[in-house]
Structures are given as structure tokens and as C-alpha cells.
Design brief:
Elements: E1 25-29, E2 35-39, H1 40-49, E3 53-58, E4 65-69, H2 71-88, E5 94-99, H3 105-120, E6 124-130, H4 139-152, E7 157-166, E8 169-176
Parallel strand pairs: 1-4, 5-6
Antiparallel strand pairs: 1-2, 3-4, 6-8, 7-8
Length: 201
């Protein structure tokens, strides 16, 4: 039986850092505020002498801009920026609300509340009216129901286009609208001081 073959662990190459920088020269920025266009190797040596790494921060510039800093600190700052960007990012989903052309008022109100909640969460709403059998002959009922829904949601969303009939269903897309929050004017409390006495005539 052959002994297991030794597999050398893969070393991750740090791109655009120190010796991995491919540009012949860079615009090097050092902690003391000095900026100098110099050969890459000389800039790397100068950064290493300071106990720092040379990191390309603007690769598309001519020449590329490289900054002398601690690589671990730079990695931490990049991850923090990505984390903050993901927190601010809001994914807009499309929520479906399905009806039948003969939907009664109770069921309609129930699904209307769902649509209001979806729009309030910042999602788009796709309202669908499904037809079965001979109901397709009364497609106008489905169109009227969608227009009624759009009117009831006017304060919460804006309709994208007009109701469309595709196959055995009609649908309309409603997007959320940003409500302008009006700040209430602070009323000044009445002054408790007595009014100044009137001058004698």
C-alpha cells in the first residue's frame, strides 16, 4: 500500500498587495501625508521598512494609487463597509394576492389588508384574478375587481400600467409609494409673563 501523497496546502495570494502588485510604478501615499510617484519595488520596500504593507486602493488610476497601511486593518475596514452596505440594501419582493371574479366582500377585505401590509413593508403586489371554466367569458368582472383594488390601494401604492389578461388570469402590478412624513409644527407655549403696562396718556 502506497503512503498517502503529501498535498501542499494552497497559499492564498494577496492581490494588489506588496510583491503581488503588477504595475511598474505607483502613486504611493504614506502615513505622513507624502505622495510620490515611484517604482513599485521601491514603494514596497519603503512601506515594509515602516512595518506596513503597500496596498493598491485605486487600480484604475494612472498610475495606480497605492497606500502604505496595515493589511489586517484594511481588511477589517473593507469587511465593515460591505456589512454596512448589505444592511442598507433593501430587497424588493413581489407578493401575490389572488382573487376569483366572484370574490365576496369579506374575502376581498381580508386580501386587501394583506396587500396594504405588503406595500407597507416596501414590497410590490401582484394582484391576480383567476378564471375557471366558463368564467373566462366574464373577464370584464376580473378587470373591474382589479381596478377597484387599485383604487382602494391608491394611498399605499401606484399601479404599473393597466390590468392585463394572460391566458386564464388577469393581473396588475402595484408598487409601494414613499409617504412623506410631515413634521408637526411645535406650538410655542404661551408666555406666563404678564403683558407690559400701557403707557399713560
Amino acid at each position: 500500500m502506497y503512503p498517502p501523497r503529501f498535498v501542499r496546502p494552497r497559499v492564498r495570494v494577496r492581490e494588489n498587495v506588496n510583491e503581488a502588485i503588477r504595475a511598474r510604478e505607483v502613486r504611493a501615499v504614506f502615513p505622513d501625508g507624502s505622495v510620490e510617484v515611484m517604482p513599485t519595488q521601491a514603494a514596497v520596500r519603503k512601506a515594509l521598512d515602516m512595518g506596513l504593507d503597500l496596498i493598491v486602493v485605486s487600480p484604475t488610476a494612472e498610475p495606480p494609487v497605492a497606500k502604505a497601511m496595515d493589511y489586517g486593518q484594511w481588511q477589517y475596514e473593507q469587511k465593515k463597509k460591505q456589512h454596512d452596505a448589505r444592511k442598507k440594501q433593501h430587497v424588493i419582493l413581489v407578493k401575490e394576492v389572488k382573487f376569483r371574479p366572484n370574490t365576496d366582500d369579506h374575502d376581498y377585505d381580508f386580501k386587501l389588508k394583506h396587500a396594504v401590509r405588503f406595500l407597507g413593508e416596501g414590497n410590490r403586489v401582484k394582484a391576480i384574478v383567476q378564471f375557471r371554466g366558463r368564467e373566462i367569458a366574464h373577464a370584464d368582472l376580473g378587470r373591474k375587481l382589479l381596478l377597484r383594488l387599485a383604487e382602494d390601494l391608491a394611498e399605499h401604492g401606484a399601479v404599473e400600467g393597466t390590468p392585463r389578461l394572460e391566458g386564464r388570469s388577469a393581473h396588475v402590478i402595484i408598487s409601494p409609494v414613499k409617504k412623506e412624513v410631515k413634521e408637526k409644527k411645535k406650538e410655542k407655549p404661551p408666555s406666563s409673563a404678564p403683558p407690559p403696562p400701557s403707557a399713560a396718556q
